[in-house]
Amino acid sequence: MPISEWFGKNKNDNNGEGRAEKLVIPDGVWLKCDSCGEVVFHREFERRFKVCPKCGFHAPLGALERIAHLIDLGTFNEIATGIVSCDPLDFRANKSYTEVVEAARAKTGLAEAVVCGSGEIDGRPVAFLVMDFSFIGGSMGSVVGEKVTELFEWAADMRRPVVSVCASGGARMQEGMYSLIQMAKTSAAVGRHASTGCSYISLLCHPTTGGVLASFASLADIIVAEPKALIGFTGPRVIEQTMKQKLPKGFQTAEFMLEHGQVDMIVPRADQKETIGRLIDYTTRDVG
Amino acid sequence: MRKFILDFERPVAELEEKLEELKQLSSAGQPDIAAEIGYLEAQIEKLRVHIYSNLTPWQRVQIARHPDRPRTLDYIEAIFTDFIELKGDRLFADDPAMIGGFARLDHVKAMVVGTQKGRNTKENVMRNFGMPHPEGYRKALRLMTLADKNALPIISFIDTLGAYPGIGAEERGQAAAIATNLMTMAKLSVPIIAVNIGEGGSGGALALGVADTVLMLENSYYSVISPEGCASILWRDNAKAPTAAEELGLTADKLLEHGLVDTVIKEPLGGAHRAPALVARDLKKALVAAVRRHLTKTPGELVEGRYARMRAVGSFESAEEAAEASE
Ligand SMILES: [Zn+2]
What pLDDT was estimated at residue A7? Predict the structure, then answer.
């Protein structure tokens, strides 16, 4: 879902202060927060990387926005590029898989649901991967699995820490078992990277579920979560149907996962870059 | 005892009932029935062959879920000797949906692990219908690590609809437990043979499936998501499960065709439950052969080979090729 939809399009219904009308503000200057409904200044919202200044709601960020947020300006170099998915099962639901992928490319401008590269976080070199939920729910098929694996292998060769940012509904159904096995493939690559002694820090964002959570995203040395992010193996709807009972309030939120020992900390977007930088410091051997 | 009959088997079952009636008449002294009995028997056989030779993926899923289908423990009893069950994850509990222990395969000392469904309703409740909690995956990992320490080959049996979707499972880290199995199994320096005997449901099945050889019984299925789950998400209609089963390419023959599994073991007409001893015999042969083959390898060769196996799985092409193709 594009950001504009999350926040509603109309900025003229802010009858609170009336200042908006007086200033004759062009379209897109004000936004309505999807969580608290307050009207907020667009530039302020963008400056905070899409965190509502009124209630602290963390709106979804795309892969490129995450790079801008966490990676030092001008240091990002994309790697593991140049592959596109096939349609091994000739999968067709209401649309063919090929059409689904093409639509996702057109909508997001991305080649796939993950972007991988090298870059620096406050001057510290890292291997970085970021998933984009707006690309078929951030699902992992062959291309995502291959790119993630390549990144971990590259980082192992270069002796670099890996930082991953996940937002994914899980394995991509349309590639069937090819997708499922990407879980094993990426997990094995994490294991190889770990055996070089390099660290891996995973940032879990809204939502991270299914096959991505049950593979590389959970295998980090340190797991950081974004406030209120939905994190869990099975989605809440399926659990509710299976258990035939209402789920406890806050079930599968980042806060719930912290309470149950599944993540190390919850870090708001404003502090993520600095925190991850400090974590890299602690998990990198001092040279000399 | 009433036999469990699947919908698509009903025509056969009806003829079988008729046959039974005829046989009773015959034994009651009715003459001239022998010919009719012979004719009916031939008809039934023809119909059976016709139905079971043209199974749809959805029908195979139903056979894979058949309540009479042999379970992991049935195969352990039939194939292995000297089984010593080991229990517990040393962290929280023993999960009856996952079993494991030492056993001998044709005199070779080995470790077996596997998901376990019940053989009746009461047992199924105890076994949680073969759907493990995190403690089940952690028990399996504990036993596999123990096998690694003692240089024992591992045979894992997969038969689960999936990892259990529940509150406790989430609280105790279902995703992390599965992920840890995937990562650790890739590093074990002993042979790992996985065999799918029924249901291979998603990550909860794969958590036992990182192996040097993957076998499947003819009517087992292996899938990224259950057909019902896929139908409800992509078609927004659970009734589309048969279509989803078709699209997901989850049958043993399809997966063999794609090179995603190594060997498919034939089942008798109608499914493994029609002749469990026969299936156990063939499965044993395949297991012994696979274990022998991998035992000749060094630990390094095993680990490298297993990594390369997984590394090679993916369906993609270079962007340039794709662009050229579409021109
Ligand atoms: Zn707000």
Answer: 38
Q: What is the pTM of this model?
A: 0.93
Angle at B190 between CA B185 and CA B192, to 5 degrees: 60
* Count of structural domains, chain A: 2
**Distance between CA atoms of residues A26 and A191, nearest Å:** 52
Nearest CA in chain A to B323: A84
* Weakest mean pLDDT among A78-82, A114-118, B1-5, B48-52: B1-5
Nearest by CB to A233, from B163, B229, B319: name it. B163
pLDDT tens-digit map of A9-44: 333 333 333 333 444 445 678 999 999 999 999 999
Q: What are phi and psi of A140, to 5 degrees?
A: -100, 110
Torsion of CA B247, B249, B250, B255, to 10 degrees: 180
- Is position A12 within any domain? no
Neighbours of ion ligand 1 (CB under 5 A): A 33, 35-36, 52, 54-55, 57
Query: The CATH number of the domain where A129 resides is what?
Result: 3.90.226.10
The radius of gyration of chain A's CA atoms, rounded to the nearest angstrom, is 20
A95 touches chain B (CB under 8 A): no
The ipTM estimated for the assembled molecules is 0.96
Interface contact A118, partner B, CB < 8 A: no
* Chain A partners within 8 Å of B163 (Cβ): 214, 233-234
